């Protein structure tokens, strides 16, 4: 593998492709291109380490190692059996395979995964008289199999566990927001650490912690201990150590306020535990406060939140969203507020016209990320529907 010019594929959520592309460009990626739920770029081994350590909206970072066309299972197996797997996998190491299959010829991802596993094991058995073990839970090396019709792509997974697993979350409420989605929302909302931030329904504190990390320019994986690339044959521990030191030296002081409200004691306890785990007790404040009884007390202010819905809380939807709109209008003048909702009729219930609407997915739930601009007095014509 030529480590000076790696072809890199970075997975993300639908709707965050441009945010991720901007992140990759700022980190130094070359030939950056946004795709569907992914971004591709080029870079060296050090850049691959930097991406894994720093990128906020990446879910998984892959390095393609082979590509071919196969029209039946026999051809698929033969191509894989002839590949030199010992370039990437040591005899004593365990491995696992993730698979995504979109093909009429090969319509069973589990079966194709099994065929690939057989090809790898048979390769080592024939060459070394030894069989590497499969470990689905904690493998040394992880491969990704992607089949699109006849085109087969095999990649090395450089991340291991998905990159939303930052390492700071110790407690969670029901259906907490994914860390990658939270960071993407904050970046879409324009949060850059200037001013003050409020999450008025903070749950276990994910948006608060991600907001603090952005404000301080703290790398996304500061609290993570392991990456898959650390088990690669060409792993350069000194290079990774240097990259971490350089990134951590860029961390800056945050002088604004980051505040979270919630009315649920368990949620507040979970938020405090996670904030303490992220060592941000001095930066983030959480308190028991009903948003509907609150008033703006920070200037300037950006508000981003994930109102409870579905199984998390029993609410009268119409009344709940109407109260959000009333609180915006009556208590938060001159404020930019964003909220995410799986209720696609939420804007009608809020009673304000959103100035931006962005389609995102929270897990499998289709949502809208809505921006509201509150002003003192009437600003006719200021609210413009803009679908993105």
TrEMBL record:
<dbReference type="Pfam" id="PF22020">
    <property type="entry name" value="RlmL_1st"/>
</dbReference>
<dbReference type="InterPro" id="IPR053943">
    <property type="entry name" value="RlmKL-like_Mtase_CS"/>
</dbReference>
<feature type="domain" description="THUMP">
    <location>
        <begin position="47"/>
        <end position="158"/>
    </location>
</feature>
<keyword id="KW-0489">Methyltransferase</keyword>
<dbReference type="GO" id="GO:0070043">
    <property type="term" value="F:rRNA (guanine-N7-)-methyltransferase activity"/>
</dbReference>
<dbReference type="GO" id="GO:0003723">
    <property type="term" value="F:RNA binding"/>
</dbReference>
<dbReference type="InterPro" id="IPR004114">
    <property type="entry name" value="THUMP_dom"/>
</dbReference>
<dbReference type="Pfam" id="PF01170">
    <property type="entry name" value="UPF0020"/>
</dbReference>
<dbReference type="InterPro" id="IPR029063">
    <property type="entry name" value="SAM-dependent_MTases_sf"/>
</dbReference>
<keyword id="KW-0808">Transferase</keyword>
<protein>
    <submittedName>
        <fullName>Putative N6-adenine-specific DNA methylase</fullName>
    </submittedName>
</protein>
<dbReference type="GO" id="GO:0008990">
    <property type="term" value="F:rRNA (guanine-N2-)-methyltransferase activity"/>
</dbReference>
<dbReference type="InterPro" id="IPR000241">
    <property type="entry name" value="RlmKL-like_Mtase"/>
</dbReference>
<dbReference type="Pfam" id="PF02926">
    <property type="entry name" value="THUMP"/>
</dbReference>
<dbReference type="InterPro" id="IPR054170">
    <property type="entry name" value="RlmL_1st"/>
</dbReference>
<dbReference type="InterPro" id="IPR002052">
    <property type="entry name" value="DNA_methylase_N6_adenine_CS"/>
</dbReference>
<keyword id="KW-0694">RNA-binding</keyword>
